[in-house]
Write a structure and sequence with these properties.
CATH class of the largest domain: Alpha Beta
Radius of gyration: 25 Å
CATH superfamily of the largest domain: Bira Bifunctional Protein, Domain 2
Number of helices: 13
CATH topology of the largest domain: BirA Bifunctional Protein, domain 2
Distance between the termini: 34 Å
Shape: globular
Bound molecules: glycyl-adenosine-5'-phosphate
Number of domains: 3
Largest sheet: 7 strands, mixed
Structural class: alpha+beta
Strand content: 25-35%
CATH architecture of the largest domain: 2-Layer Sandwich
Oligomer: single chain
Strand order of the largest sheet: 3-9-10-16-13-12-11
Number of strands: 23
Length: 436
């Protein structure tokens, strides 16, 4: 099964989806760059999330807050203290460092690198430090955000006031987060720089349980709706002793990766931890008054916290398929997520009349704004099909000799490999229907 991940890593690099960061300098652990097809693909994942949150759901507002914030934000949130640490064990001999909980899970008590003795576990803070301004001392210390969430809390009042928002309402955002992970790994599963897609739903305390259930189910439906196999997804409630410092209740949506079942998204009932703490630390009162009882309360927060890179990895793994002889790789991505929506070929590259006609169709489709369209006239037609299958292009269009006579082309479906003839004038409607 791990082999499958290796194949995906190789495919992602070979076909311009994901490259190791700073590769020509030997790489940098936990950092990856998205290539041309990867940018399209990950943007489609993010766009699918934005459409779900800000178009389909009701009363959710979008935010784009900054990566750098006042250092007190991270003190109020609990991230500078024990809450945002992982247990670390270091080898006394080679000084390799490991997550103590991961070693314990595998029953390992000696250094996996050199067999040396390991130090006792200690807490290691995951925030990435930086300094702002010309003087590099304690007063200029701040952090790259460890989660996008906090930018939403510090803007709670701004959004509520400017948008005349009434509880219950939500605020969501997509953005980079940084964590000094002790052991990044499994490709883009655990990175040190990554993107989150987080949404905070502000509710009255008595409504928190109801919305927790609502959001859990809505988020599961999102993955299913984008084609992830049902049997590969499950909920996992957090045990009391693994709840994050802010959480009253939490469930992970897990996916069965080639390296086992692991979290792809967390749904958390954060109680009143966040707004009460930010009120206390900032001096700005973020409480509300219940219009019926007249009582003051801090809104409870139900959070849906997904990783854009982790979701993208799930879509890649879930879509990856090989035929019986391991010769034909097909990335069966949902058409909405595929980097190219279609590819256009001339049947033969040495027949100018076919090339010109195919070029016309290609430029027409590009103008029609269906999304990115690929052009390929290399090698033979079979190779071009396989090349597009491997990157998940759902439909390939070929201009052949009949095209020159009746203005029809063949459209081949990636998953069934069936072909049908369609009139060039009808292509726009044909694809719009398919992409609905
Ligand atoms: N605001 C809550 C929060 O950040 P989390 O469980 O620490 O909760 C939420 O992270 C999601 O962010 C995870 O489910 C995962 O998808 C993504 N994520 C977290 N750490 C990550 C990492 N090191 N690399 C890639 N994605 C990560």
């Amino acid at each position: 099964m791990e082999n499958k991940l290796e194949k995906i890593v190789a495919l992602a690099k070979r076909r311009g989806f994901i490259f190791p960061g700073s590769e020509i300098y030997g790489g940098i652990s936990g950092i990856y760059d998205y290539g041309p097809l990867g940018v399209e693909f990950k943007n489609n994942v993010k766009q699918a999330w934005r459409k779900e949150m800000f178009r389909r759901q009701d009363n959710i507002f979008e935010l784009d807050s900054s990566i750098l914030m006042q250092r007190q934000v991270w003190e109020a949130s609990g991230h500078t203290s024990a809450g945002f640490t992982d247990p670390l064990r270091e080898c006394k001999k080679c000084h390799h460092r490991y997550r103590a909980d991961h070693l314990a899970e595998e029953g390992i008590d000696k250094c996996p690198n050199c067999g040396g003795e390991l130090m006792e576990a200690r807490k290691f803070n995951l925030l990435v430090e930086t300094h702002l301004g010309p003087v590099k001392d304690d007063s200029s210390l701040t952090y790259l955000r460890g989660e996008t969430t906090q930018g939403i809390y510090v803007n709670y009042k701004n959004i509520k006031t400017s948008m005349s928002a009434e509880i219950p309402f939500g605020v969501g955002q997509i953005g980079k987060a940084f964590r000094n992970e002790i052991t990044p790994g499994h490709f883009t599963y655990r990175m040190r720089e990554f993107e989150q897609m987080e949404q905070q739903y502000f509710v009255k305390p008595a409504q928190a349980e109801k919305y927790f259930e609502y959001w859990k189910n809505e988020r599961m439906k999102w993955y299913l709706g984008l084609g992830v196999k049902k049997e590969k997804l499950r909920f996992r409630p957090h045990a009391k002793d693994e709840l994050a410092h802010y959480a009253k209740g939490a469930e992970d949506i897990e996916y069965e990766f080639p390296f086992g079942w692991h979290e792809i998204e967390g749904v958390h009932n954060r109680g009143d931890w966040d707004l009460s703490r930010h009120s206390k630390f900032s001096g700005e009162d973020l409480s509300e008054v219940d219009e019926k009882t007249g009582e003051r309360f801090y809104p409870y927060i139900v959070e849906t916290s997904a990783g854009a890179d982790r979701a993208a990895l799930v879509f890649l793994i879930d879509a990856y398929s090989e035929d019986k002889n391991n010769e034909r790789i097909v990335l069966k991505l949902h058409p909405k997520l595929a980097s190219y929506k279609a590819a256009v070929f001339p049947l033969l590259r040495n027949k100018p009349e076919l090339v010109n006609k195919a070029r016309e169709v290609y430029l027409m489709l590009k103008k029609q704004n269906l999304g990115p369209v690929a052009w390929d006239d290399r090698g033979n037609i079979g190779k071009r099909y396989y090349s597009q299958d491997e990157i998940g292009t759902p439909w390939t269009i070929t201009c052949d000799f009949q095209t020159l006579e009746d203005d029809t082309i063949t459209v081949r479906d990636r998953d069934t490999t069936k072909q049908e003839r369609v009139k060039i004038q009808e292509l726009k409607n044909y694809f719009e229907d398919k992409l609905k």
